Amino acid sequence: MVFSIERDHMKRGIQTVIVAGIIVAMVLLLSPIFARWWHGPTETPTAPPPVLTVTGQTTIAELIRQTGLELPTLRRALQVPPSTDSAQSLGALGIAPAAAQTRLQRALALRTQEATKNWRKIASKFLLWGIWLTGVVFLLKRRRITPRLRLRLLLLAVAVLVFGIMYGADQSPMGTVKDTLVLWGQHHLLFPPRLIALAVFLLLVILAHKSICGWGCQFGVLQDLLFHLNRDGKSRTGILPQVKLPFAVTNSIRILVVIVTTGLALIWGIDLIEPVNPFTIYNPTHLAITGAVAVGVLLVASLFMYRPWCHLACPFGLLGWLVERFSRQRIRVDYQACVGCGACARACPSMAMQAILHQERVRPDCFACGACVTTCPHQAITFDNQPQMPIPDVTFAPKPAATAITPTDI
């Protein structure tokens, strides 16, 4: 009998790995097809910026030939009057060559940012995000997201609505933070559309917790899908062993990673994340060996740990974690109905629900997956904007330390 159970468990584990591999292969194969389908600019610069030769005798006309910038754009970049003649030299205009080169490099960097954006695609993606997240929040508030429906919705977000496959790596919550820091470090330049996108993402966190990370971020959803593939039918335990790491450990690593990447970006303009950027899986033609290895490790780890990139390295994950404490819609506990059984904390894929249940001051990221809402046998967990009541005299189940989620009930 024991041998039969172990054999069945091994078979289910192999099936899980196969299905996960099929989904990853689908991402790698279909993403380039949709990238060509858009017929828009590539999301990655394909040519290096021109090398500028600037002296005091260099004329405006010569700079136009070197940079490819139009005359009005060049005038604005050099901060000269609109009536400036193209035959005038920088020396005659009183512009130092070094200052002119810096201004032109900024103008070229801004042109590159604009040239790599397909505004039609980006606008439709944000619109789709709004519709999608509205529907998800509606289901969360009505306790409709069962384990089976969660899997279908996650697969839908990855493979049908295709925030990654169909829409590519850009835009992403992480990219708005990373690219803003790098662009400022390299050129002391801000790209207004990216700042607007970042503001929208943070507004979504305030309105509905980290639902944009939990249900809209293309790589976050892929990690989530792989993790839930490796769960039993009631999403309580792992088919293959899964682990919950202490938030103090994961967040300390994430803070350290973000501090290092931010420092390198702002001081030297070094993009430490890009070589291992996991979102490049949705732009696989630009996936180098280092990136492929990093993505592979993260995807395998996602079967055993909930959202490893989000918890260990994502700069927007850290920023969203700081902002989510101001969220209007969030997980709430009705302590009048709660009996302290701990079912919600056991169903939670991370340590978040344990901290929410005990109203701890420092709480792990909650990605609004809804597992606690549908698992609670007394309907004491809700996702809404009602104020949280203080904890009454309730005896909770023992608080676990870092635990391995094992298939004890198979």
Q: What features would you describe in this structure?
A:
The protein is mainly α and 410 residues long. The protein has three domains: 2-42 and 117-319, no CATH class; 60-115, no CATH class; 323-405, Alpha-Beta Plaits, CATH 3.30.70. 56% of the residues lie in helices and 3% in strands. The radius of gyration is 25 Å and the shape is elongated. The two termini are 13 Å apart. The model is unreliable at 400-410 (pLDDT under 50).
Describe the structure concisely.
The protein is mainly alpha-helical and 410 residues long.
Question: Which helices and strands occur, and which strands form pairs?
Answer:
Layout (H helix, E strand, L loop, with lengths): L1 H37 L21 H8 L3 H8 L11 H4 L3 H19 L3 H23 L5 H13 L13 H15 L4 H17 L2 H6 L1 H12 L12 E3 L2 H22 L20 H16 L3 H5 L2 H9 L6 E4 L9 H5 L4 H6 L13 H5 L5 E4 L18 E3 L5
Helix pairs in contact: 3-5, 7-11, 8-9, 8-12, 11-13
State Rg: 25 Å
Whole-number count of domains: 3
Helix content: 55-70%
- Give a quick account of the main beta sheet: strands, pairing sense, barrel closure: 2 strands, antiparallel
Oligomeric status: single chain
By secondary-structure content and strand pairing, the structural class works out as: mainly alpha
Quick tags:
3 domains, 18 helices, 56% helix, two-stranded antiparallel ribbon, 410 residues, elongated, Alpha-Beta Plaits, disordered C terminus, single chain, mainly alpha
